[in-house]
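FORM 12-B: Structure-to-Sequence Request
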């Protein structure tokens, strides 16, 4: 691998990237050009894009992006994920390529929903059909895996592939309330026989892809391959002949939601089975505000904890964290409940807030969870929070930083 060292060649690299397949760092090249095409030294093959250094090198397949160590370190300090489209984020994290199409590994997918930047790598790994066959050999059987509640993607890590349309589907179900699982299943069950086959599943996945392309300026779609993938093999078996019933569909979604939440929780728990109120606050504020605004919220929380409990923070378990996230998945129902009681445009008390949560979800949040939320969002200490601000910020969290 050799980095280029002249500004002229660097500009040529950007031009070459624009002629490369559209999934190959299209957004990086565009942003670099918008920055004036300036290439820094001592690596003239390095462009400054959105505050990150991205290197380029040339091999037999053309120009490939390199996420440098500097970029990775910078990303760790990034206060908030860049607002990207779903396709741009998929392209950023997808580490595999087959037959001109980008694919994610299970680990790529998990990283894309809990991390701000992908792991440092050089380009994408180009797969042969035999590589895919080997990956599919390690996919566990659905029945046994669902019964044990195994963390499927965590177990597989980089031994698997996920297509762009599957990525859109997985993002969609991550933030769906359990009350919507049946409706989602019925959408896939196009013939109404209470079973979903591989053909029905692929038809709806293709629809996800078409809807994603609908409002875009480009006319070329990313492609919706019907290649056997980790997800289709898991749900429908190696030969695609198994049928998917609602109970298994429900367990799959519930397990995936839990797996992602566990990864998010463990990232701040650092080996413990509990987190502090401040760590909980950082998680729920993710994607919702810039760094300076986030610090204002956290300082407010710290100050109130110091005044009331001499700085001693309460412990929050994974069960409590998961329950709060399940509440967020029911945010639309919560808004409807608040409107029913005419609270939407007014500040609300903890009692009113807890009651609306119970109406919209069927369960009560723990008192100290509600208390932590109020310490974050009660800006003047009067015991009320602006319901509109809370809802707006939590909707940003559900959107996971994607451009709306």
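FORM 12-B RESPONSE
SEQUENCE OUT:
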């Amino acid at each position: 691998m050799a980095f280029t060292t002249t500004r002229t060649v660097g500009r040529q690299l950007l031009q070459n990237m624009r002629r490369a397949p559209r999934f190959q760092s299209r957004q990086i090249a565009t942003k670099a050009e918008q920055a004036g095409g300036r290439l820094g030294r001592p690596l003239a093959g390095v462009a400054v894009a959105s505050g990150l250094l991205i290197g380029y090198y040339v091999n037999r397949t053309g120009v490939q992006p390199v996420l440098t160590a500097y970029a990775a370190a910078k990303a760790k300090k990034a206060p908030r994920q860049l607002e990207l489209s779903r396709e741009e984020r998929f392209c950023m994290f997808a580490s595999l390529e087959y037959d001109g199409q980008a694919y994610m590994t299970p680990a790529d997918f998990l990283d894309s929903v809990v991390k701000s930047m992908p792991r440092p790598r050089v380009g994408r790994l180009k797969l042969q059909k035999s590589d895919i066959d080997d990956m599919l050999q390690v996919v566990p059987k659905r029945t046994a895996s669902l019964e044990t509640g195994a963390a499927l993607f965590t177990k597989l890590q980089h031994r698997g592939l996920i297509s762009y349309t599957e990525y859109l589907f997985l993002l969609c179900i991550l933030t769906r309330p359990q009350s919507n699982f049946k409706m989602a299943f019925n959408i896939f069950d196009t013939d109404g026989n209470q079973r979903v086959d591989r053909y029905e599943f692929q038809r709806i996945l293709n629809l996800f892809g078409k809807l994603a392309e609908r409002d875009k300026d480009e006319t070329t779609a990313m492609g919706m391959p019907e290649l056997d993938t980790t997800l289709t093999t898991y749900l429908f078996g190696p030969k695609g002949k198994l049928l998917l019933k609602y109970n298994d569909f429900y367990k799959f979604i519930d397990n995936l939601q839990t797996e992602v939440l566990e990864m998010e929780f463990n990232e701040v728990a650092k080996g413990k089975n509990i987190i502090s109120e401040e760590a909980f606050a950082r998680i729920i504020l993710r994607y919702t505000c810039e760094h300076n605004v986030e610090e204002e919220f956290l300082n407010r929380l710290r100050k109130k904890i110091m005044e009331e409990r001499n700085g001693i923070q309460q412990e929050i378990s994974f069960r409590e964290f998961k329950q709060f996230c399940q509440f967020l998945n029911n945010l639309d129902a919560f808004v409807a409940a608040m409107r029913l009681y005419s609270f939407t445009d007014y500040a609300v008390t903890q009692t009113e807030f807890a009651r609306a949560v119970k109406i919209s979800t069927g369960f009560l949040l723990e008192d100290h969870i509600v208390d932590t939320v109020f310490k974050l969002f009660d800006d003047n200490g009067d015991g009320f929070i602006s319901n509109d601000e809370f809802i707006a910020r939590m909707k940003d969290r559900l959107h996971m930083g994607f451009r709306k």
